Amino acid sequence: MFTGVIQGLGILGGRRGGVLRVEVPPSVRERLKEGASIAVSGVCLTARELEGEAFLADLSPETSSRTTLGELRTGARLNLELPVSPDGLLDGHLVLGHVDTVGRVKAIRPDSDGWRFTFSYPPEWRRHLVEKGSIAVDGISLTPFSITGTTFQCAIVPHTFEKTTLNERSVGDAVNLEFDILAKYVAEVTGRAHTD
């Protein structure tokens, strides 16, 4: 389990078939263990093998087709987060690393001393978005607002902009979206109640 608070930026060092090589900063590498989970731009992967300042992870066809990881090129920067420990602080929100769908950056504009991003998402996910709730975008815990049937906005503070891959995003870029697990459970239970 993760919190959506990014701990460092990695680089896609290459791929061999369905195996990714991800280069990580020392602050992440020193805590990463073989067989452990790590969120890579919001996708929970298993570090199956450590190689110096990098790790190898398998990318299943399902993960490749449902996330942006299958399309990324060597050299792409990646948001990294190690799992939260039971005694750790929950700084963001509960993030599983199970990406629901891919959205796109629709607009970016300055907003006070930060930025305002507009993201698109497939309309079938609308009931999982809550005004001022939580969403993970490329693994980053954000607060959606101004929600429509196909878009939502997020205010990005300078620290988040500088310390994540959001500062590299352009209009049209694809992003991984994981809707809040609590919203998904509520939507599932209430949906069942209406069909039973």
Give a description of the structure:
By secondary structure, this protein is an alpha+beta fold. The chain has two domains: 8-81, Beta Barrel (Elongation Factor Tu (Ef-tu), domain 3); 101-195, Elongation Factor Tu (Ef-tu), domain 3. The protein is built from four helices and 13 strands. The strands form two sheets. Strands 4-3-7-1-2-6-5 form a seven-stranded antiparallel β-sheet. A six-stranded antiparallel β-sheet has the order 11-10-13-8-9-12. β5 and β6 form a beta hairpin. It is globular, with a radius of gyration of 17 Å.
- CATH fold node name of the largest domain: Elongation Factor Tu (Ef-tu), domain 3
CATH class of the largest domain: Mainly Beta
Which band does the percent of strand residues land in?
Answer: 35-45%
Quantity of strands, as a count: 13
How many structural domains does the protein architecture include? Answer: 2
Summarize model confidence as the mean pLDDT: 92
Q: Which class do the helix and strand fractions yield? A: alpha+beta
| pLDDT < 50 stretches | none
Cα-atom radius of gyration: 17 Å
Distance between the termini: 32 Å
What is the H/E order?
EEHEEEEHEEEEEEHEH
Q: Which word captures the global form?
A: globular
CATH architecture of the largest domain: Beta Barrel
Tell me the helix content.
10-25%
* Major beta-sheet overview: 7 strands, antiparallel
Strand order of the largest sheet: 4-3-7-1-2-6-5
Count every helix, treating DSSP H or I runs of 4 or more residues as helices.
4
